[in-house]
Design brief:
It is a single chain. The protein has one domain: Four Helix Bundle (Hemerythrin (Met), subunit A), CATH 1.20.120. The mean pLDDT is about 90. The chain has 6 helices and 2 strands. About 75% of the residues lie in helices and about 0% in strands.
């Protein structure tokens, strides 16, 4: 290999080093996690869709009012938290630590509100008799599928709130960089994106007419 070719290879973002693929190791690690987690949710949602259409007695437990309106409000809250996360990343990149921390706290509030609303919905369904392997309306598989998928997503949101709390505390004290805020933003946007699939597939496909 000629010397010029060697130099070009070393200068390439594919040459390894501390920033392979032209990005920091933290961001690369988060992207790898997101890809693996996306595969998990994809399998769960595809399996749910198959069960939904393969069972003629699949329950339709969500009337438009209040269930769909309530879940729509949950969706709006989560989308709003995604917007505040964008503002946090933007402020962090400008070096405005105080504003970034405030926007992160607003994002955490949205996440906590989402979890609270979701738990309220769970309690309502449990009061109506929905259990992991039984329900009053039809196929007993509904409870396991519903609680499994929404529970996994809600766990991701709860972990995200804790994660953002750590980032906001560290960034406010100057221990974390803007890259750390951006990486946490990638996680939060992924959680929001997953809900954009969960909402129509689980809720809108099971509307009670």
């Amino acid at each position: 290999m000629h010397e010029t070719d060697q130099q070009a290879t070393l200068a390439s973002p594919w040459a390894g080093g501390v920033s392979p693929f032209a990005m920091g190791s933290k961001k690369l690690g988060m992207w790898l996690f997101i890809i693996s987690d996306a595969l998990t949710f994809s399998v769960l949602l595809i399996s749910y869709s198959y069960l939904r259409f393969a069972n003629p007695d699949w329950p339709l437990p969500f009337p438009f009012s209040p269930a769909i309106l309530f879940s729509t409000m949950m969706t709006v809250v989560l989308l709003a938290s995604s917007l505040t996360m964008v503002m946090a990343v933007s402020a962090a990149n400008r070096g405005e630590r105080g504003k970034a921390v405030s926007w992160i706290l607003a994002t955490m509030l949205g996440g906590a509100l989402f979890v609270g609303l979701h738990l309220t919905e769970w309690l309502h369904l449990i009061e109506e008799g929905v259990r992991p392997f039984s329900n009053p309306w039809g196929s007993p598989l509904f409870g396991a599928a519903f609680f499994g998928i929404t529970g996994l997503h809600m766990t991701h949101v709860a972990i995200g709130v804790i994660y953002l709390g750590i980032i906001s505390f560290g960034f406010g004290r100057g221990k974390f960089s803007s890259e750390d805020v951006e990486v946490s933003g990638l996680y939060w946007h992924f959680v929001d994106l997953v809900w954009m699939f969960v909402f129509p597939l689980i809720y809108l496909m099971s509307v009670k007419y």
